Amino acid sequence: MTPNKRTPRKAEVAQDQCVACGCCVKVCPLGAISVFRGIQAVVNREKCVGCGKCAAECPASVIRIREVTA
Amino acid sequence: MKNKHWYDYLWIVSLSYLILGFFNILFAWLGLLCFFIPLIIAVTQGSKGYCNRYCGRGQLFGLLGGRFGLSRKQDIPAWMRSKWFRYGFLIFFFVMFFQMLWNTYLVFAGASDLKQVVTLLWTFKLPWQWAYHGTLFHPGVAQFAFGFYSVMLTSTVLGLVTMVLFKPRSWCVYCPMGTMTQLICKVKNGSKDPSCPTANKV
C-alpha cells in the first residue's frame, strides 16, 4: 500500500428523495450513474471516482460525496 | 466530454414554442406533446426517458443557469424537495388544469365567450389579443390554446425563478410531469431491487 494513498470517495444518492430527473447522468464523465427504472439514480461504485460533478448538478441536492473505508 | 446527440438540442424547440405563443396562440396546442410523450414513455417503457433525455425545458434551464451563469447554484430548501410539496404541487397543478379545461368546455358549449388573455401564475390576466387572428375552428379551440399557453408560461416563469434562486434545473424537482412520471414508474416497477447490478441499465 502506498503511503499517501487517499481514502476513495464515492457519490451516494439519498434514494428516497431522488426525483430521477437524470441531471447527474448527463454530467458524469465516467458513466457511473444511471436512473434506475425512472425511480431513482443509482451509482455504480466500481466506476465512480467521487469527482462530485453529479452532486454539484443535482437540482434536489440529494447526492453527497462520501469517503468509503473498506 | 461525451458526444452530443440530436436530443441535446431540444431546448431550441422549447424556446421556439414560448416565442411562437407571442405570435399565434394556436401554436400552444403543440405543448400537448410535452404532456403526452413523457406519459407514453413512462407507461410503455417504465422509465423517465423524457426527463432524462428529451425535456427541452430542462435543457433550457440547464443552459441559462449553467452556461450563462444565471443561477446562484444554491441548495433547494428541503421542504421544496419533500414528498408532500411535490405531490401537493402536482395536485394543485391538476386542479388548475381541470379548471382550465372547464373554461374551455364553457366556450365550446357557448356558455361563455372567448377570453383573449394569458393568465400568469393562476392570477394575473395578461392581455394577449395580438396573438389571436381568428380561427377556422370553434372559438373553444382558441380558448384551450390561451389556457394551455398560460400553464406553460406559468411553469416557465416558476422554473426561471427557482433556477435563479437555486440550481439551474430546480424546476425538475417539483415539475408535475416529472412527479407524475416517477409515480407511474414506481407503480409499474415498484418491487424491483435497485441494488441488483444487472438491472441497472434501462
UniProtKB/TrEMBL annotation, chain A:
Question: Which GO terms of the molecular function aspect are on file?
Answer: 4 iron, 4 sulfur cluster binding; metal ion binding
Q: Does the keyword 4Fe-4S apply?
A: yes
**Database matches in InterPro entries:** 4Fe4S_Fe-S-bd (IPR017896), 4Fe4S_Fe_S_CS (IPR017900), Fe-S_Ferredoxin (IPR050572), LdpA_Fe-S-bd (IPR057431)
Give residue ranges for domain 4Fe-4S ferredoxin-type: 9-38, 39-68
Instruction: List UniProt keywords, sorted A-Z.
Output: 4Fe-4S, Iron, Iron-sulfur, Metal-binding
Q: What is this protein called?
A: Ferredoxin
Species name: Faecalibacterium gallinarum
Automatic annotation (TrEMBL), chain B:
Residue ranges of the TM segments: 15-43, 84-102, 146-166
Superkingdom is Bacteria
Keywords, A to Z?
A: Membrane, Transmembrane, Transmembrane helix
Q: What is this protein called?
A: Membrane protein
Which source organism does the UniProt entry give? Faecalibacterium gallinarum
Organismal lineage: Bacteria, Bacillati, Bacillota, Clostridia, Eubacteriales
